[in-house]
Design goal:
heterodimer; A: about 375 residues; B: about 375 residues
């Protein structure tokens, strides 16, 4: 046991001696969560649009007023003929053009119906879709307003309640994701590299002939990183609470436990990577190339999993980050207890055991 | 010249000798391009819909049927009470709960007015907004039909006014997000591979101790750097070519503009990335440090490139930050050229910025590389 403690001490020395890595380890997560917390959003904000008003009457003016008053759109220019639509899109000046038909008001009063065309630059289909939805919503509310005076009968009123996030802040969606990605990549990368480093430099041989058991070597390697990752997690949680006003509706204690669990999952994934790679370069490439994009794309961090094609929905189940994001959202935003997230927790525990078992099996005590 | 060729040869040998690395360089990116391009959609569908029907009349059932028939909603459950529905939402089993009050039909017929309440899981705020729009559309549509069915013809004279919005999506009529995502993800993969490899390259020699051997040879500084970077420059082109082929063959992404223009731009872009890798390499002592720094920048480059979330939605200061993101320009150029058929003049701003960037990065890299340790 004394030997083991000595070994852990050595590992801590290694880490604390390397001031630059230490700075990166703690500085980067902070910088990233701050940057992304503010910058990553899929809200529509101040999108530039153009108006092609063939009718130019009181009603169209009112609608245009409504649209420009909303924070979603700003009207960049007015155009006067069809050909110009193509030009403004080509130049990339605006993302949408609103075309009001001729005699808009007259049609509306006479036939009770009038048409408005929403043309969007759909090279970015995601944004185009949102723009269309937002514009229809604004026009819909205007329509409700003008219909107030007519004697409306048989009206069904829909009262919507936005649960867990009444102001529809996109921070609530993205902060748990950013936190997960940082913890995952930092933990997996750090362990995989520190173990392969010993291999590459040849010091692994020395450790193997020492009286320490192989599993003690591995655990000794991992313990300092558990410690560091926990500090990282604490810093990130504090930042998200105080800077991004993320609520923690559920228990902080549970949040801490689950974070430790996820850190251990990521670390054991790191161990697994290190057992299959011979050089630091290989280890890094696997943990970065192999983990980064799948974690960003398939975890539900940015893109909703339920909209993906079925095979990808199935694949997303093997991404540990997906489950941790569910847990984080559950505890922080929904305020649920273990009774609601036991399944996710069990899956993470299962994955951890699987990674560890596989690493033990693959771990070579002898050098080739 | 000959010296450079020898270094290049050595580098290529080292790349191809490392059997563990080859699949990571070539297979992994391609696999990711093929698989992950399918994941990046904001389209909202398969919404998990549930309801609590306190009324249980033909009217309430007809409304629920409307949701069932819609392609956006999957009716997954009916709950006897609001409490159970809320629990299911907390567990993540349902996204939307529609609650139809008791006497829904009676109120509508007698008092000519009634309301229903909807609860939406709004953690994903943008999705919740869209879901709300869909729900309102369905209810209004149902409402309109009900009014027609219930009103007497004389009432119809002052029927509600209706503004019809007709959407049209230009350049991408079917809203196929893959044509949008594939070029972007391709750009990311090329960037990541070349940056990671070049960033780790020199520092590896430092760490193993072979850099000292290099330093005592008569190789000149510029020869060494060119020899080190050239293989990765070629590698970048190989990856780009394979990626473009996949984009065309598997995803059928239109390539409207000229391919030559994309390659021309890429030649400069890769210089930026390689210069950056070299710079990182010079400033670090271990591969670990080099990777951490590359990783830090890559994550920022990816998430702030406008690839996944639009740059226009970012706060103004963040939009300025993206000006320093080379990936943003590459993403813009490939999209403009491939999807809109942009010409040389259209991409000139991006090209100029990239060239300036390349000059600065490589200048810094050469300046910071010292032959003495």
């Amino acid at each position: 046991m004394k030997r083991f403690i000595g070994f852990i001490k050595k590992e801590f020395y290694h880490i604390f001696r390397d001031k630059r890595s230490l700075f990166i380890l703690f500085g980067m997560p902070v910088a990233q969560i701050l940057l992304f917390g503010f910058a990553i959003t899929n809200e529509i904000n101040n999108v530039d649009i153009a108006i092609f008003d063939k009718s130019n009457d009181a009603t169209t003016q009112e609608i245009i007023q409504k649209i420009s008053a909303s924070k979603y759109f700003s009207i960049k220019q007015n155009i006067t003929n069809e050909a110009e639509i193509e030009t403004v899109f080509q130049k990339g000046n605006v993302l949408a053009v609103l075309v009001f038909e001729k005699d808009f008001k007259k049609n509306l009063t006479k036939d009770n119906t009038a048409k408005v065309h929403v043309i969007t630059d759909a090279t970015d289909p995601n944004t185009a879709n949102s723009i269309t939805n937002y514009i229809s919503a604004i026009i819909g509310s205007y329509q409700k307003e003008i219909n107030k005076n007519s004697t409306l009968e048989y009206q069904i009123d829909t009262k919507s309640r936005m649960v867990y996030n009444p102001e529809l802040k996109s921070v609530f969606m993205f902060v748990p994701g950013v936190m997960t990605i940082i913890l995952m990549l930092v933990s997996a990368m750090m362990t995989s590299i520190s173990i392969t480093r010993e291999k590459e430099l040849g010091t692994m041989e020395i450790l193997l002939v020492s009286p320490l058991k192989p599993f003690q070597v591995i655990i000794g390697k991992v313990i300092p990183y558990i410690f560091l990752s926990i500090i990282n997690a604490v810093v990130i949680v504090i930042l998200s609470i105080f800077i991004f006003k993320m609520p923690v509706q559920g228990s902080l204690f549970l949040l801490a436990l689950e974070s430790v669990l996820f850190i251990i999952t990521s670390l054991s994934l790191g161990i697994l990577i290190s057992t299959v790679s011979a050089t630091q370069q290989t280890a890094m490439m696997i943990s970065l190339m192999g983990l980064m994009l799948p974690t960003i794309l398939l975890s539900g961090f940015i893109f909703p999993i339920s909209s993906m094609p079925l095979p990808l929905q199935v694949i997303s189940n093997i991404i540990p980050a997906k489950w941790f994001i569910l847990i984080l959202k559950g505890i922080m935003l929904k305020g649920v207890g273990l009774a609601f997230i036991w399944k996710e927790t069990l899956i993470l525990i299962g994955m951890t055991l699987f990674f560890i078992a596989l690493s033990v099996k693959k771990y070579k005590i002898r050098l080739e | 010249m000959k010296t450079i060729l020898f270094i290049v040869q050595k580098e290529f040998r080292q790349i191809f000798r490392n059997k563990g690395m080859l699949p990571i360089i070539f297979v992994l990116p391609i696999l990711q391009l093929v698989i992950l391009s399918n994941a990046a959609t904001f389209e909202i569908k398969n919404i998990k819909f549930s309801y609590v029907d306190h009324d249980k009349t033909s009217f309430s059932r007809a409304l629920i049927e409307k949701f069932d028939a819609s392609t956006y909603f999957n009716v997954v459950a009916e709950f006897p009470s609001k409490k159970e529905a809320n629990d299911a939402m907390a567990k993540g089993k349902v996204d939307v709960i529609l609650e139809i009050p008791r006497y829904f039909e009676r109120d509508l017929l007698k008092q000519k007015k009634t309301d229903i309440s909807v609860a939406i899981n709004a953690i994903d705020g943008a999705a919740a907004g869209v879901e709300n729009v869909y729900i309102n559309q369905i209810v209004q549509d149902f409402n309109k039909k009900a009014i027609v069915a219930l009103s007497s013809p004389s009432d119809m004279a002052n029927a509600p006014k209706d503004i019809v919005t007709i959407p049209s999506f230009w350049y991408n009529k079917t809203l196929n997000y893959k044509t949008f995502m594939v070029p972007g993800i391709l750009v990311l993969l090329v960037t990541m591979i070349t940056l990671f490899l070049s960033g780790m390259n020199i520092v590896r020699e430092k760490e193993i101790g072979t850099l000292e051997q290099m330093n005592v040879t008569p190789i000149k500084k510029y020869q060494f750097i060119i020899g080190k970077l050239f293989p990765f420059w070629i590698l970048g082109f190989v990856l780009l070519t394979v990626g473009l082929t996949i984009a065309k063959v598997i995803f059928d992404v239109p390539i409207i503009g000229s391919l030559g223009l994309i390659y021309f731009y890429t030649a400069f872009y890769l210089l930026v990335v390689l210069g950056m890798g070299l710079f990182i390499s010079n400033f670090t002592d271990t591969q670990q440090q080099a990777m951490f720094i590359s990783w830090f920048f890559v994550v920022i480059f990816i998430l702030m490139s406008g690839l996944f979330t639009p740059i226009e939605s970012m706060p103004i200061w963040a939009q300025y930050v993206t000006e320093f993101n080379p990936v943003k320009y590459f993403v813009q150029v490939t999209r403009m050229v491939m999807l809109k058929g942009a010409h040389f003049n259209d991409i000139l701003p991006q090209l100029t910025k990239t060239i300036i960037y390349a000059l600065i990065m490589n200048g810094l890299a050469v300046w910071s590389y010292q032959k003495t340790t």
